[in-house]
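User: My collaborator sent over this chain with a note saying "see what the structure looks like." That's all I know about it. Can you take a look?
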Amino acid sequence: MIWPRLDARMRSGARIALLLSVVAATIGCDRVTKALAVGHLAGGPDRSYLVDTLRLEYTENPGAFLSLGSDLPGWARRALFVYGTALSLVVISLVALRPSSRSLGALGLSLIWAGGASNLVDRVARGSVVDFLNVGIGPLRTGIFNVADLAITLGAFLVVAGWGFGVRPPRPLRARRTEAGR
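Assistant: Without extra context I'll predict from the sequence alone. Here is the result:
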C-alpha cells in the first residue's frame, strides 16, 4: 500500500516530473514499436512466437479498439477519434494534475493520456492507427493492438484500483462520539 503514502510525501513538482516521465516513456515505446512494425512487418508475412502465443500482424486500423467505428464516414471518424480524443486528453490532463488526485489514479490517467496521445498522432498523420500485436492461446485470441492500447488498458485498471485506495472505511461509532466531545 505504498501509493496512498506517496500522496502525502511527494512534492507536487516531483509528482509531476514522475507522471511526465511515464508519459514520455510510454509515448516513446509506442512510437518506436510502431516504426519497427511499419519497417519490418508492413507488407510481409505474419510472425508467430512462443508456440503461437504472440503474433506480430501488421494492420492499419481506421477505427477505435477492435476496429469499432471503422465503417463510419470519414468526417464522423475524424470528429470522434481526432477531436473527441483531443478533448478527452485535455480533460484527463486537468484531472491527473490536480493535487488531490491519488497517485495510483494519476499514474493510470497518465498512461491513458500517453496512449491516447500517441494513437492521436497516428490518426492525424496517417488517418489510421498502426496495430501489430496479437496474443492468445489456440482459438482464444485478442484483437490486434499496439503498445498505446496496452497503456490505455493498464491505465484504466490503475484508475479503478486507485478508486479502491481512495475509499476510507467508516470510522467506528465510538471514535465519532469521542471526536464530537461526548
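A starting point for your reply to your collaborator: The chain has one domain: 2-166.
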